């Protein structure tokens, strides 16, 4: 039909694996990054925070309760901020078995583990997650991209972008690393004036696809920003946002979206 025809060919939105490929492997683990790479996605997305001793680690939630075995290793600390743990403590946590028993033993990755898992085809979207809990995280990420060879190579190929919900944090990052593509995240698309302000420091705008309509995509594009959406977990939703003219689609099942985007 007319809708699926729009999803085939060079204009099909690029696929981004969410938290790696959170639908098929434990989120924010090297196992999930490898799955995203195998899927042929253009990028995989990660969430970065800073440990109590300043090490950048990959983790979505603000506490360890949902995805780790914290109750066994550090009883009583289930609801402590994840950023109150040192890197050495984080490495004692196990983040695979809460997802599925066969992933038991997966550890919390270091930021640089994402660069090592990425390839020239499948790069990395680095989300600066809850930056108010990780003071200085923007500088740590910028310094890593500038000095770690695996990151330098990806940056040179245009395969690293930074994303975040916090506009002040995004502005700080843009000032530190103006050459790295940056996307503002928000649950809804604001008016044209607000998007013009975003375009002063960012290259893209990413929003929840459920709240997006054709006028929202037009406002994003009119501000000179790329349009991205999260979190799309069906081919029907992919077709829906493709028909709106969205440029990038983030989802938990990148293999299915890539196959669909290729018309397979
Ligand atoms: O790609 C953006 C998306 O990752 C934002 O939501 O909660 O999964 O970090 P969240
Ligand atoms: Ca995220």
Automatic annotation (TrEMBL):
Residues 13-261 form the GP-PDE domain. Keywords: Signal. The chain holds residues 51 to 314 of 429 of the full protein. This is Esterase.
């Amino acid at each position: 039909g007319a809708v699926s025809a729009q999803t085939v060919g060079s204009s099909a939105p690029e696929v981004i694996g969410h938290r790696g490929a959170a639908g098929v492997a434990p989120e924010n683990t090297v196992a999930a990054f490898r799955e995203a790479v195998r899927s042929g996605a253009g990028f995989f997305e990660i969430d970065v925070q800073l440990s109590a001793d300043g090490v950048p680690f990959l983790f979505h939630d603000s506490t360890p309760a949902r995805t780790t075995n914290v109750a066994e290793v550090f009883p009583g600390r289930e609801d402590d901020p994840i950023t109150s743990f040192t890197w050495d403590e984080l490495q004692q946590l196990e983040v695979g078995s809460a997802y599925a028993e066969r992933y038991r033993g997966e550890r919390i990755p270091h930021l640089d583990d994402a660069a090592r898992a990425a390839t020239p085809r499948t790069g990395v979207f680095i989300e600066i997650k809850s930056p108010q809990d990780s003071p200085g995280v923007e500088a740590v990420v910028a310094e890593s991209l500038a000095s770690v060879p695996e990151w330098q190579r990806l940056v040179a190929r245009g395969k690293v972008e930074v994303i975040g919900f916090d506009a002040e944090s995004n502005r700080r990052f843009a000032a530190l690393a103006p050459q790295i593509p940056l996307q503002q995240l928000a649950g809804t698309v604001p008016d044209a004036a607000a998007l013009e302000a975003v375009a002063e420091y960012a290259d893209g705008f990413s929003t929840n696809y459920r709240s997006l309509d054709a006028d929202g995509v037009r406002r994003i594009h009119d501000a000179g920003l790329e349009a991205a959406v999260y979190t799309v977990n069906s081919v029907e939703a992919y077709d829906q946002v493709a028909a709106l003219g969205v440029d990038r689609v983030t989802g938990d099942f990148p293999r299915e979206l890539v196959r669909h985007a290729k018309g397979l």
